[in-house]
């Protein structure tokens, strides 16, 4: 069968997933020398953006040189994905999937959180970033996302919605902060808290892991929420993998009151929400 494969909007995307008729369904860029995206992760990410009619089972197959589908990719957690073209087929090897219509969110502009000088010295240039934007408190309450916060702190510290809990925050370097807010960097808690780079990984930091102090915190109040990281990762996937789709704005700028700065004034602020990406992550490779 001769297929004319649709080109991705971003030519650097070297993992491309197609319907049987050559329609591009999803794509992303990986570093061929440092492949940290496994078969299981690819299946999981695709399930976030595919709608399979009739809830049919489906699988991913590499496209061989003669354009026929190769052996099915098993959803295992150890084998890394190779760059190349792939088919998404149902059990009868007829493509039935289509791109999900979920809208990708535009990155909110989150102002730097206010820190006192002594805290700034402790964390040495790190910026506090909300995982879920504080400007979207209506959506937060509507979707009951506060169920992801287990912080028992009083409302006077984290708000009645719990949106300002340290569990909804990370400390990031300036460059990482911007990439995180633009959904170019995510954390996958279901893959050992791997750092996932959506785009060119020139520093080879994809696949490194979130620091233990951010994952677990010093007590139950300040470890980062795995479910909120899943939410953020899903936004990264929508924005970066969905085929040839421009991101659509979903919310306005995050310019609301910033109570998290008050939380970060505590003596253990650095341990509460610490993660160092890009130039700061080299020593934390698992």
Report a brief summary of the structure.
The protein has 286 residues and is of the alpha+beta class. The protein is built from 9 helices and 10 strands. Pfam families: HNH_2.
Would you tell me the overall average pLDDT?
Answer: 76
What letter string, H or E per element, gives the SSE order?
A: EEHEEEEHEHHEHEEHHHH
- The structure class reads alpha+beta
Largest sheet entry: 4 strands, mixed
Shape: elongated
Give the percentage of residues in beta strands. 5-15%
| Percent in helix | 10-25%
Placed side by side, the strands forming the largest sheet appear as 2-1-5-4
Radius of gyration: 20 Å
Number of helices: 9
Q: How many strands in all?
A: 10
Distance between the termini: 43 Å
Low-confidence stretches: 94-124, 248-260, 262-286
Protein name: HNH nuclease domain-containing protein
InterPro entries: HNH_nuc
Organism: Penicillium canescens
Structural write-up:
With 286 residues, the chain is of the alpha+beta class. It has helices spanning 39-49, 117-123, 137-142, 155-158, 174-181, 212-216, 226-241, 260-263, 269-272, and strands at residues 15-18, 24-28, 50-51, 58-62, 84-90, 98-99, 127-130, 169-172, 185-188, 194-197. A hairpin with a 5-residue loop joins strand 9 and strand 10. The model is unreliable at 94-124, 248-260 and 262-286 (pLDDT under 50). Pfam families: HNH_2. This is HNH nuclease domain-containing protein.
Strand and helix map with partners:
Elements: E1 15-18, E2 24-28, H1 39-49, E3 50-51, E4 58-62, E5 84-90, E6 98-99, H2 117-123, E7 127-130, H3 137-142, H4 155-158, E8 169-172, H5 174-181, E9 185-188, E10 194-197, H6 212-216, H7 226-241, H8 260-263, H9 269-272
Parallel strand pairs: 1-5
Antiparallel strand pairs: 1-2, 3-6, 4-5, 7-8, 9-10
């Amino acid at each position: 069968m001769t297929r004319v494969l649709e080109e991705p909007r971003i030519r650097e995307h070297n993992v491309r997933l197609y319907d049987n008729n050559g329609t591009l369904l999803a794509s992303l860029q990986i570093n061929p020398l440092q492949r940290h995206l496994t078969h299981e992760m690819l299946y999981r990410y695709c399930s976030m953006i595919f709608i399979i009619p009739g809830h049919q089972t489906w699988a991913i197959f590499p496209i061989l040189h003669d354009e026929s589908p190769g052996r099915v990719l098993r959803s295992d957690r150890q084998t890394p994905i190779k760059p190349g073209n792939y088919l998404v087929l149902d059990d009868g090897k007829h493509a039935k999937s289509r791109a999900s219509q979920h809208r990708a969110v535009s990155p909110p502009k989150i102002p730097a959180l206010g820190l006192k000088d002594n805290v700034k010295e402790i964390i040495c240039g790190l910026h506090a970033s909300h995982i879920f934007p504080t400007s979207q408190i209506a959506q937060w309450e509507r979707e009951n996302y506060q169920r992801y916060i287990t912080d028992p702190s009083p409302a006077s510290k984290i708000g009645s919605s719990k949106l300002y809990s340290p569990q909804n925050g990370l400390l990031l370097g300036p460059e990482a902060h911007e990439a995180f807010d633009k959904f170019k960097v995510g954390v996958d808690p279901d893959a050992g808290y791997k750092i996932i780079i959506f785009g060119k990984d020139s520093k080879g930091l994809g696949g490194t892991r979130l620091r233990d102090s951010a994952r677990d915190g010093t007590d139950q109040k300040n470890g980062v929420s795995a479910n909120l990281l899943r939410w953020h990762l899903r936004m990264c996937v929508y924005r970066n993998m969905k085929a040839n789709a421009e991101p659509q704005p979903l919310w306005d700028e995050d310019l609301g009151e910033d109570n998290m700065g008050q939380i970060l004034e505590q003596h253990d602020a650095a341990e509460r929400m610490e993660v160092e990406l890009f130039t700061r992550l080299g020593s934390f490779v698992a």
